[in-house]
Amino acid sequence: MESKANIKAVMILLLGFCILPGCGGDDDGESAIVNNWNGTEFTVSGCTYPDDNGTETCASDCITANFRSDGTYTITNTDGTGSSTETGTYTLSGSNISICENGVSTCDIFQWSVSGSTLTLSGSDDDCNVVVKFNKA
Hints:
By secondary structure, the chain is mainly β. It has one domain (30-136): Beta Barrel (Lipocalin), CATH 2.40.128. The protein contains one helix and nine strands; from the N terminus they run H-E-E-E-E-E-E-E-E-E. It has an eight-stranded antiparallel beta barrel. A hairpin with a 2-residue loop joins strand 8 and strand 9. It is globular.
């Protein structure tokens, strides 16, 4: 009987370790953003100049993002004229992400969410509302 009690205690202990931090492969919490992402859609709306509004897909302009677990990122934008790369740091606070480009004194703050394999960043840039959608690479 004592060995059954020990096995039961060990099982309860293991179950406790599994429940507290969360078991399984779900991308919940802040670690969900850590990945390589391919931009799929870039939407700009509510701009002072209506000609700035619109939606672009990767057919014309492509953006890739790599958010790493050490709080650094790399974003590469490719268009018809070439590509540019931005690096910096990011911090997460709930549903907000602060993206701070190296060498720039201010950070951009966006709302972020991950649903399945889709990352969505939304916020304001200059005088426009911006929504960028990514798929896991």
